[in-house]
Amino acid sequence: xxxxIVQCLGFGIPWLLLPxxxxxxxxxxxxxxxxxxxxxxxxxxxxxxxxxTQVTVAAVDVLFVVDNSGSMAEEQRALRENFPLFIQYxxxxxxxxxxxxxxxxxxxPRTKGVLIEDDxxxxxxIDDTFTEEEATASFQQRANLGTNGSSTERGTDAAWAAxxxxxxxxxxxxxxxxxxxxxxxxxxxKNQSRDESVNEFSNWMTSLKPDGATYFSSVVGLGxxxxxxxxxxxxxxxxxxxxGIEWDICSTDYASLLDQLGLQAAGLxxxxxxxxxxxxDSIAVSVTDPEGNVTDYAAGADWSYSQPRNSISxxxxxxxxxxxxxxxxxxxxxxxxxxxxxxTAAP
Length: 347
What we know:
- This protein is α/β, with parallel strands linked by helices.
- The chain folds into 3 domains: 5-31, no CATH class; 47-53 and 271-333, no CATH class; 59-265, von Willebrand factor, type A domain (Rossmann fold).
- Helices cover 20% and strands 24% of the residues.
- The protein has 6 helices and 16 strands.
- Residues 1-18 and 335-347 have low confidence and may be disordered.
- The strands form 4 sheets. Strands 6-5-4-7-8-9 form a 6-stranded mixed sheet, with helices on both faces.
């Protein structure tokens, strides 16, 4: 072992031979002596608060893609009967809206992505010139598709044809660059589309509105044992890629469904994006309403976190317009100092 040599009384003396009263200065200091005071590193986890204001939009285009195969009579009827709960968020609101309907039947060019006309008005879609009563009556006629359609349900093919292929013909004027887009598929079968893959369709939707929002909602079988619907494969994947509502088509609560679809399509969001990567178990969510009242919401019961999208989605409510969603969490990974987020858009 190498001996420690120190200077004592001006001489180099092995430490074992030090005389009494000789002290050792080996350059090491106690924790309280570093730079004259104890200065431990800050190991605390940064706390982030994202404060996001709920706002509405000026214009929205809504496309209902409705399965018209042999097993859909009951679902079509429930959709028609509960449509007033959807349109209430549009009529008289000042929102510039378009609502159209297509079927999942793509076997013929005469039906593939062709907006269903209202025989009484001859219009291809409903807009803000309709009164609430006129809009309801018109939609109920359009959504009365019958059950003689193709058993090969091609929902995303129908949506693509309506919004892209037929954009300058039967769908002229329906989809606008300046408006948000909401697609709602209602089917008790999986997606059997052939023209675009799930990823291609999802990528198209997510890149379609750089300055706006797109939603793809799936009212389908959720694979939970419902005997009258198979799992909506293909549709559910698009919803999870793009964002939107997942709803069990076997549920009899179509009133809540149309209510939530109306809230979302009218521009009220239920999904809010985090600005930094969170420690998931640390996330806390509250909402401050325009009057300053604060309501706390519970994870699992009221909202869920999506790691791929780095967002929280409310499952029981839509925050009211101009309310502030407060998302507090410990930061897992960040490229800079935590800041307060006030942006309402997805990152």
